[in-house]
Amino acid sequence: MNDHRYFKQTFYIIIGLVLLLTAYAIFINEAGSRHMTKLFEATHLSVDCYHVKKREICAAYEVSNIEVQAQWKIDLRAEIDGTVAEVPVVIGQSVKAGDVLMKLTRRETPSEQADAQAAVSEAEAALTNASQELERKTYLIGLGAVSQKEYDTAMANHKAALAKMASALAKATIADDRAAKLIITAPQDGVVMDIYHRQGYVVQAKMPLLLLANTDKLFGRSSFPDDLSHSFATGNNDYYMEIKPYMVAFKAYPHNISYSENNIIQGPKKVHVHTRSDADPLRFKLKLHNILPAFSKKASYRELHWEVQNQNGLLEPTTYRNVIIGSTTPVTTLVLPVSAIRNINSAGEESVFVVDENNVIHSRSVSLGIRNEDYAEIISGLVEGELVASIGINSLSDKMTIQPIVKDEENER
Fold it and tell me: How wide is the angle at C-alpha 178 spanned by C-alphas 177 and 179, nearest 5°?
């Protein structure tokens, strides 16, 4: 009995100690957590911030693609079956109206022209004889030396000789025209954009042979959000298109374009391009032609039509991707750094972190307009003088307390 009582007492003592130790451990853990929280709260994250203010910026907007078309382009087609004998031009070469672009050959052509010429010579001789005979019979019938039947025969022979001559000339013309169709010439000034067939290739009538285009003046189409469309429409047509060099059509003109420091060598002449290195973008002047649909109609996006100046011939009619379209005319507007902007959903809605008087940040949706590499115009959501977090915003969360470091002066430099 005593042993059983001793065992129960021991058991209760052990259970009590376990509970006591557990309670102590919970107390220590909670106290440590509170202490760590106080230490964390005492050391706030330092964040670069910027006061919303007005400044001059030039609009610059990246479009996913811009479709560039030539003022005109045409496929020159074979008018007759043949074999490519010679291609005296290369892709990218500028040509004048009438310049020979390709020569075809037909095995039958030389014999056709020779036979036609022989037929013309034969008909010409027959006509000469018939004319002389008719002239003689006309004289003799006046003297009564020949009969009317002989005169009529001479007249009929002359008419037959005339018909034979006309037929021979027609066949010669056809042979010459057929031979002329073997010479492909430029219908007007332009640039050879593509050559579809090389020497020795057999072609058929109506088959395209070369692509010719005028690339001095190109026309581009790009889509813009409605608010940005309005911003561009109010400019003075002083716009530009900025493309990375590797996106420009060097591949289309490998024979006559290469880099040399700050110049691009194009054939025998140098085309100066203001670049700092091969990786710097190239700029081409734009002129705004049209906006569709018109602003009188509601639309989320509008298509802007541009005239692209391409006198140096570096662009080709195609689609260019990730192009910057901008204006060189500055406007004074309320802005914030683009580094302060964050996308908060898949629809592209944008927001910023606004810092209050207690250094607590709050997420706020904003509507933005024109922008460039550094700044974006504020359409709504912020007022002048408010402080926004501008660096490291991906590590922040709503209602976090921070230590703001105002960078206004650095941003102004």
Answer: 90
